[in-house]
Amino acid sequence: xxxxLAARGADVFDTFKVDRKSISDxxxxxxxDLIHQDKFSPGEKIPGxxxxxxKINVSRNTVREAYKILGAQGYLTxxxxxxxxISDEESQIRNLTSSFFIKKDxxxxxxxxxxVLESQAVIWAMENPRLDHHRELxxxxxxxxxxxxxxxxxxxxxxxxxxxxxxxxxxSGNTILIRIMINLIDLLSEVRTQTIQIPGRSEQSLKxxxxxxxAMITRDKKRAKQLILEHLSSVEESIIKxxxxxxxxxxxx
Length: 253
Prior knowledge:
68% helix; Four Helix Bundle (Hemerythrin (Met), subunit A); Arc Repressor Mutant, subunit A; mainly alpha
């Protein structure tokens, strides 16, 4: 836990150097660096505009602009009449993922990582087979079938898809892999909702999920790994085709 600001003194800010061509950007990056270096604790109050301007030798307007940017990005919480505070980590992640623009190259890179992680997750899950895991996967598939039959909302279908993939990762027993996957899935949340709306994509994903589970139940590692890779490639191709068809070359969200 970081010590209170008053106890630290002014030396926290004495390393600030600025390029006068982009002062507000420099201030934004400087404060981000302090946060990433754990110089502040979540919820901690930091100097107000006037005080911060004096500490780092810039104008108050520059600090005000930087605080607005950091507030919009989720790093700071500005409470009128109370001051400026470091946002908690959950708020920072939520604001980051909600403002994340998924470009074509981002999709390709994110799916490349997912292929590595999820293909290994399936192998690990099969090395420690449990009947309750098989039942859980089957229940998710049945819920998905029911949702499609009842013409469920795109949001519900997207959540079921997410539930399936997170279940596979959780069954691997690797807690670090699970945490990484949660963040990756958050980054792709908007893309997933749009992908579900592509005609036939939900039905195709369900068929592919069923084949993956069948291979896992028979403990056919080679086939299960091949199927999860083919499934992720299929989804990736759907996203790219949707992007090109709709002329969304710059972003998918």
